[in-house]
Design a protein that fits this description.
It is found in: Membrane. It comes from Paenibacillus artemisiicola. By secondary structure, the chain is α/β, with parallel strands linked by helices. The chain is built from 14 helices and twelve strands. The chain has a four-stranded parallel beta sheet, with no helix packed on it. It starts with 8 loop residues before the first helix and ends with a strand.
Length: 562
């Protein structure tokens, strides 16, 4: 995971609250009153109600794919290439949103607070702050939000209390004069700023170390909406809807009206401080989401190498994103609601609908078993079949028409058997056939036995013995846990423990594996080996890493190279 930091549910609620206030506390009242007039506060209520439904959509998506960001589960739902395309679209949305928020800061300071200061200097200062926050990570941003939240709420409370003497209730009348259509149209300002932008949190929710994220997410969004409703009401009560609609930042002008006695007045710096803090967290979260999304689309190990380049890009884009503040008002009222709805409503809804028709996890196909075929990975043919079976599986190898079976190109030579710890088995053949080629008749055959013991078996008449426990009884070999190998020697038959004789056959049996080898025909499989590393006879090498059993037979002594 690129982001290792974790936040708790309380920090998620705080970040949602501060993000919801962000630029909304200064910009939204103007858009509400411009459309719905004195009923702007009703539009705010409608917008908050729709915002709650959007929160439900985001929470549903997050619960269907826990631990995954929006970019990650988009790839899972839509496939790799289409999912990456959607991820890049969301990255562009987050990046553009961060640029717009940064431009809002520059416009506010250069228009209201410090009109002689170049906007580039203001942008540079905020870019330095968000570069530091992004490099420190989400956890540090959340802890910082916890520190500043009491101060923000205190200043908001002071603002509301000090404005109470300035309220004129007749400014809100007549109620519902604008009509339902104007109220609904006005609510688009609140829906688009900030609720459609809350899709940013789909990149943050996986970092929450609590599964129940719905309630804290909803609490933060609703509390932010309540603050917007109260500020809009105060703008209507104190300033009047016409004055509020003509100003880009009416809540800042609202704070200028504060006058308590003759000593407490012009404390609009309270609103400026509130806005600087809340918009810092909104800007940091947008920039962080853009970085994280881009890194996940490209499967990068970390997003931190891109912090400085993206910081430069966001500074440039914030200058050219719109020419002036008048253009921004038109953009925010007529274009941004529909643009943000594409990423905040339609695409998440599309992902949710498509996810209903696609399984959350594709079932893995079980491994099959085959017999008698040649598999290219082992360099074997004519009945050589490696099989893997991790636990509890059994493997049987039948050799019906004798021959020398070898997987290493040796005959009767040294045979390593892949068992985890180094036991040894030695088998001496005194009167049996001596397979020639590269080995010796009845040579040493170390076989891994986990307990480190050694087993010796002598076959003195009429047959061979290879250290897997073949002629003359059962001999457990190469079996790390509870495995057994049985070999039946009946009427001159010499079954080898791996279904082979005199050959080289690594045999691995890792967990509770029973290997049985039966040789029903009366052939003695210790015949000579062929030069060049090949032996005659079928080889059946068997590895047992998964609970499957495979059987392979070699009905005729074909020539087979290891």
């Amino acid at each position: 995971m690129i982001e290792q930091g974790k936040i708790n549910a309380r920090q998620l609620a705080i970040l949602t609250l501060l993000f919801s206030l962000g630029s909304s506390i200064l910009i939204v009242p103007s858009g509400l009153t411009a459309v719905a007039k004195q009923d702007g506060w009703l539009s705010a209520i409608v917008g908050v109600g729709v915002g709650v439904l959007l929160i439900g959509l985001y929470v549903t998506l997050s619960k269907r794919y826990p631990g995954q960001t929006l970019v990650q589960f988009a790839e899972q739902i839509l496939g790799t290439w289409l999912g990456k395309l959607v991820g890049l679209l969301f990255f562009s949305f987050y990046f553009l949103l961060a640029s717009l928020v940064l431009r809002n800061v520059g416009d506010f300071i250069t228009t209201i607070v410090m009109p002689e200061t170049p906007i580039q200097i203001v942008h540079l200062l905020f870019i330095m702050a968000i570069l530091m926050s992004a490099s420190l990570g989400l956890e540090v941003i959340a802890r910082t939000a916890e520190i500043f939240l009491p101060w923000i709420m205190t200043m908001l409370l002071l603002l509301i209390v000090f404005l109470l003497p300035q309220i004129q209730f007749d400014r809100i009348q007549p109620v519902f004069e604008a009509g339902a259509k104007a109220i609904i149209n006005g609510s688009l300002s609140v829906i688009s700023i900030p609720y459609l932008e809350l899709t940013v949190f789909l990149m943050i929710i996986p970092s929450v170390n609590k599964t129940k994220i719905g309630m804290p997410f909803l609490k933060g969004a609703v509390l932010g909406g309540l603050v917007i409703i109260v500020i809009t009401l105060l703008c209507v009560f104190v300033l009047g809807w016409d004055f509020a609609s003509r100003h880009t930042f009416p809540s800042y002008t609202l704070a200028k009206k504060i006058q308590v006695g003759e000593f407490l007045q012009r404390i609009e710096v309270l609103v400026a401080i509130i806005w600087f803090l809340t918009i810092f967290f909104k800007l940091s979260l947008c920039f962080y989401a853009a970085l994280l999304g881009f890194a996940q689309v490209l499967r990068l190990q970390s997003y931190r190498p891109m912090i400085v380049p993206f910081g430069i890009l966001i500074g440039v884009l914030s200058i050219i994103v719109y020419p002036n503040i008048v253009y921004f008002r038109v953009f925010a009222g007529e274009i941004w609601p529909f643009y943000s709805a594409t990423f905040g409503l339609f695409l998440p809804l599309l992902l949710l609908v498509v996810s209903w028709f696609r399984p959350l996890a594709a079932g893995a196909a079980g491994g099959g078993s085959g017999s008698g075929g040649s598999q290219p990975g082992g360099g074997q043919s004519g009945g050589n079949q490696p099989s893997e079976s991790p636990s509890g599986g059994s493997q049987q190898s039948d050799s019906q028409a004798g021959g020398n079976q070898s997987n290493q190109g040796q005959a009767g030579g040294n045979q390593p058997s892949g068992s985890p710890s180094g036991g040894s088995q030695q088998s001496d053949s005194q009167a049996g056939g001596n397979p020639s080629g590269q080995g010796q008749a009845g040579g040493n055959q170390p076989s891994g036995s986990p307990s480190g013991g050694s087993q010796q078996s002598d076959n003195q008449s009429g047959g061979n013995q290879s250290g897997q426990g073949q002629s003359g009884g059962n001999q457990p070999s190469g079996s790390p846990s509870g495995g057994s190998q049985q070999s039946d020697n009946q009427a001159g038959r010499n079954p080898l423990g791996g279904g082979q004789s005199g050959g080289n056959r690594p045999d691995e049996s890792q967990a509770n594996v029973n290997q049985q080898s039966e040789s029903p025909s009366g052939n003695n499989p210790s015949v000579g080996s062929q030069p060049g590393g090949g032996n005659t006879g079928g080889a059946s090498a068997s590895k047992s890493p998964s609970g499957e059993g495979q059987s392979g037979g070699n009905p005729s002594g074909g020539n087979k190279s290891g």
